[in-house]
Design a protein that fits this description.
The chain is built from seven helices and eight strands; from the N terminus they run βαββαβαβαβαββαα. The protein has helices spanning 11-14, 38-49, 70-79, 91-104, 121-134, 161-165, 183-190; strands spanning 2-7, 17-20, 23-26, 55-61, 83-89, 108-117, 137-139, 146-154.
């Protein structure tokens, strides 16, 4: 089975400021370039959903490496995922570490060009270069037979080191607007119902 993986396309990462239920929030980890990949990712979501019966799985992560959530590995094995197509944020952190995680577990790992961005352009290029050396492929598109959309989203609870340190604002906690998929992607996912 093949999966489209969308990493950290959350309001907190993509928007410097955003409103939710008449309250304004500021994204401390804003990735301004993230805005440029929203529409390309929406197009991939629509392509996958056009197949009909497609599963969508959302797993929270409270670390740049989503494999610290034991459910991820269990779900991949249970669903029989053998190949992933990576999109989202950011090349030199979550894209890099999670792609390595998929590769280490024997999954064919593809990074979709034009659907990821870095914080720092040079570091991003370096990270993608290292992923190629490790066996990841850089691809222009996804195949027609993707059967799962996997959302890996940054979400912290009161026990997360980032929250306890006081370096992260409370709107990065579980269930808050900073931990939700951006509206355009959420809208595209809702079309499957």
């Amino acid at each position: 089975m093949k999966a489209l993986v969308i990493i950290d396309m959350t309001n907190d990462f993509v928007f410097e400021k955003y409103e939710h239920e008449n309250k304004e929030y500021e994204g401390r980890l804003a990735a301004p370039l993230g805005k440029t990949i929203i529409c390309p990712i929406v197009e991939l979501v629509k392509k996958v959903l056009s197949r009909g019966n497609v599963a969508v799985l959302r797993l929270p992560k409270d670390h740049y490496n989503a494999f610290t959530n034991p459910r991820l590995e269990l779900e991949l094995a249970e669903l029989g995922i053998g190949e992933v197509f990576i999109t989202g944020l950011v090349d030199e952190v979550c894209i890099y570490h999670n792609s390595l995680g998929f590769l280490e577990r024997g999954l064919r790992t593809n990074v979709v060009k034009g659907c990821t961005v870095p914080f720092d352009e040079e570091k991003g290029k370096e990270a993608l270069g290292e992923l190629k050396v490790c066996g990841a492929k850089m691809v222009d598109d996804i195949p027609d037979d993707v059967e799962l959309i996997l959302l890996l989203e940054d979400e912290h609870d009161e026990n997360s080191e980032e929250i306890k340190s006081g370096d992260w604002p409370p709107h990065n906690m579980t269930g808050t607007p900073g931990a939700l998929t951006v509206q355009k992607i959420r809208d595209a996912l809702e079309e499957r119902k």
